[in-house]
Specification:
By secondary structure, this protein is of the alpha+beta class. It is built from 19 helices and ten strands. Helix 1 packs parallel to helix 3 and helix 12 packs across helix 17.
Amino acid sequence: MRGQSSSHTAGSYFIGRHVRELLGEPPAEAKFTFHPEGSYARVFQAQGADLAFAAGLLGWSLTDERFPAALTLAARNKIHLEFLVASFPEADHPNSVKIHLHSPKTTDLTIIAKSIGGGAIQIVKFNNWAIDFEGKDYLLLLQCQSKDLKKLKSIFLPLGKKMDEQTTDSQSFISVRFKSKPHQSLFRKIKTISPEARIWTTSPHVFSQKGRPLFSSGADIEKMAREKNLSLGNIALEYESTLLGLDQQRCLAEMKKRLRVMEAAIRAGQQPEKVHLQLLEPSAHKIIQAIDKQTVALGGPHARAAARAMAVMHHANSLGVICAAPTGGSAGVIPGVITTLREEKKLDETQTLLALFAAGAIGLIVAQRATFAAEVAGCQVEIGAAGAMAAAAVVDACGGTASQALQAAAISLQNTMGSVCDLVQGICEIPCHTRNAAAAASAFVCADLILGGYDNPIPLDDTIDAALSSGKMLPPQLRCTSLGGLAITPSALALKKKRIDNK
């Protein structure tokens, strides 16, 4: 993705891309409405959500070099964009958005969607019909006269597809999900039965899930590790291969692509001429130079990992391409740790990639039991989660067991529980950069504590549940709205942006 935020940048982009596909063409007009009490209303400009929505509507990739100019180029392409703050009843998430699309060639669409953290999305309403779409499958939506419903259902039932239906007095609506792109012959059959039927489609933005998940909790992993005597990295690799229907070498190759993005972000973030922050001056390169010259207090791998984490955040906040790990706001932790770990322990490529898979396993459990959205549960589920993932990666790379990796993740998360999201002026710079750095350094400490003999009595599953519960207790002012904490200190409010925004 491009920085800054996976919720506000990546998630917004995917929503924009899907609504463009559903409309079938770029809209002439697009109106985005954010609820006044949500996070979108506070930070959509500061974190580039408006750019991301525009890029999606333009049909670009999320990493397109034109991204910073998306608003300007949308206008040149005669797409009128409007961003409003107003209440709407369906806003049940801080990142809920109501989108109205107008095109003179096709029927207007009104869509309710939400960006739920880490780039994940949900589209929950299509015109007046309820749907449940997360971008993991091909989706076909069909509106027809109710008298044709039975015959149309007969087309889909033999295919064994998951189908949802709704009916009013005269109209019926069907949503069907496919693992592969529907063939054109299917559309011809629909039109033969119901010539007046209206059809909309969109494609997945992630790999389709073709198999079954092998675990959904830390307890499941513990059981699998005992039965198969596998490390956490190997368990996670087997999970991904089974779920996506890909061989393990393909999965390793995909993870290698993400590692390369992380490495490139570290390099770019150390080049001050390429860093364009709004509040901070770039400092990662200076810290690394000081470590090399031994002019810091201790230095060593902890400090180097911290500085590299900051470099990634410098790049992210310059709208650079990063790997959300698990989010844009926490994207520095794992790259800083994994590159330093590889360097210090002389890891080969497979060991490095398996360590990343181990980190991913922890992130998966956080995603399933909690959330990656600071808007919902504070910084602990973003940078806190990244620290937990990184601690597990360290244990895995150093030959620890799956149980030890889970314990390292647990104590890491236990020590960030309750952390607030109080980003200054709505931008992922202060205190996000130094929090990424501290979490990267802490990952090594947590791993060493477990490998050294600490026996953690509160397992990962309980820890994640507690983190979510405590996060939800935080007031909205401390959950990515910039209305509390550091964000409202006199010094933070007095900071002058070096540019109005990144657009």
